[in-house]
Write a structure and sequence with these properties.
Blueprint lengths: L2 H14 L8 E6 L2 E8 L2 H12 L6 E4 L2 E2 L9 H14 L9 E6 L2 E8 L2 H12 L6 E4 L2 E2 L5 H14 L8 E6 L2 E8 L2 H12 L6 E8 L7
Parallel strand pairs: 2-3, 2-4, 6-7, 6-8, 10-11
Antiparallel strand pairs: 1-2, 5-6, 9-10
Helix pairs in contact: 5-6
């Protein structure tokens, strides 16, 4: 697929997504690598725009440079944002002990620190914060408590890859050292690569995932 065609497909997909105002989003493509520029009205919209581009066939990588420009009536003091973050984490069912999470807010940019038991809890914390009014960005530094059952981790990931209809599991090698997982092999698309990473993160005890997967047809090397 040509870069010109890919760029148009991404623009069309952004226009089609109802939760994104694509009017102020720019798209450039070079050798399948997509750069998103411009501005949006919330951090959630910025995140959605990146996910929209990611799902378009032919995208090999994304450089996301979209700026969040909050409308005046949505600008919120940092102490109020911090208070809202703590409350939404306490209310969320996914976080078993929100006291283990520390929050810092500076000019709307939220930093999360601390420990959780699962990757889905780490993701849930970020997702909860993403939708709050006044948030301009998130640095998710939450860590996962390590568990040292290497064989169980590897088996769990292999089985998860096999169950996923969007993944050709036989083309992916899984290496585990402690709680660190390394993925090697080939996938058909950026979306498949993301799904493989997600399957690895879903295994209990995984603390880090190194993705050396190559998208077939790309020039990327491990």
């Amino acid at each position: 697929m040509s870069d010109i065609r890919l760029r148009q497909d991404i623009l069309d997909e952004l226009q089609y997504e109802p939760s994104v105002d694509a009017a102020n989003i720019g798209v450039t493509v070079e050798n399948g690598i997509v750069t998103l520029t411009g501005h949006v009205h919330s951090y959630e919209e910025k995140h959605t725009a990146e996910r929209v581009a990611e799902r378009v066939k032919g995208v090999l990588a994304i450089a996301e440079e979209i700026e969040v420009r909050l409308p005046e009536h949505k600008k919120t003091a940092d102490d109020e944002i911090a208070s809202r973050v703590l409350k939404i984490l306490a209310w969320g069912a996914a976080i078993s002990d929100p006291k283990d999470i520390h929050v810092k807010v500076e000019k709307g940019f939220v930093t999360l620190n601390g420990m959780v038991d699962w990757e889905f809890q780490r993701s849930a914390a970020e997702k909860s914060v993403r939708v709050l009014t006044g948030v301009t960005g998130i640095d998710n530094q939450l860590r996962i408590r390590p568990r040292m059952d290497v064989l169980d981790i590897k088996h769990g990931i292999r089985e998860a890859l096999k169950r996923n209809a969007e993944i050709e599991a036989e083309k992916i090698d899984v290496e585990v050292s402690g709680g660190q997982v390394t993925l090697r092999g080939k996938v058909q698309s950026l979306h498949e690569r993301v799904m493989a990473e997600r399957a690895a993160w879903s295994a209990r005890g995984v603390t880090a995932v190194r993705d050396y997967l190559v998208i077939e047809g790309s020039r990327r090397t491990p």
